[in-house]
């Protein structure tokens, strides 16, 4: 239910902003406005915006797919606190994923960002910690990639692309969102990390 609610709210705001540039401009992430114009809401509201319908659909599909795994595990281990912890993971991912870019671009008036990708990355990597034995299927690769291997490759790729900085994709947000997902999940229950390590070494 909580995942559907996040998807619904994000979809409604994104679609409204598609047709209302004023709303889009007021909610997007802009480090300069956050620092110099005292608009801290942009740390969070940017995650409810997307560039286009495809951007929105991809993020929400990934959130739904991996969020179900994470939430089901949270229910098993934490019971009624699962909703609180899932929201903390998602919202924390929204904030943590842009802190690096805030520090980097706080005096750059032209740097903007939108999309839930950083928060979604937090969910994806939480699922990897919980189920490293799982496999992730990409459209162009017919064979599933073990989750743990995918995680390592994804972090390397994100860090590399962030340094190149020659496209319009928020690779820093992906990287730091992923890191937050790992750290948050382990803090919730350190036994998750032990299980993760044991599972990884069992199929090395």
Write a structural description:
With 204 residues, the chain is mainly α. The chain has one domain: Up-down Bundle (Rhomboid-like fold), CATH 1.20.1540.10. Helix content is 72%, strand content 5%. The chain contains ten helices and two strands, in the order αααααααββααα. Strands 1-2 form a two-stranded antiparallel ribbon. Strand 1 and strand 2 form a beta hairpin. Helix 6 runs antiparallel to helix 9. The longest helix has 26 residues. The radius of gyration is 17 Å and the shape is globular. It starts with a helix and ends with a helix. The mean pLDDT is 87.
Key structural traits:
globular; 72% helix; Rhomboid-like fold; single chain; mainly alpha; two-stranded antiparallel ribbon; 204 residues
Count of alpha/pi helices: 10
Number of domains: 1
Provide the structure class: mainly alpha
Largest sheet: 2 strands, antiparallel
CATH architecture: Up-down Bundle
Q: How many strands in all? A: 2
Say which CATH homologous superfamily is assigned.
Rhomboid-like
CATH class: Mainly Alpha
How far is the first residue's CA from the last residue's CA? 37 Å
CATH topology: Rhomboid-like fold
Radius of gyration: 17 Å
Fraction of residues in helix: over 70%
Task: List segments where confidence is low: pLDDT < 50 over at least 5 consecutive residues.
Answer: none
Gross geometry: globular
Draw up the topology in text.
Elements: H1 2-18, H2 21-27, H3 31-36, H4 42-45, H5 53-78, H6 82-105, H7 117-130, E1 135-138, E2 141-146, H8 147-164, H9 171-188, H10 191-202
Helix pairs in contact: 1-2, 1-5, 5-6, 5-7, 6-7, 6-9, 7-9, 8-9
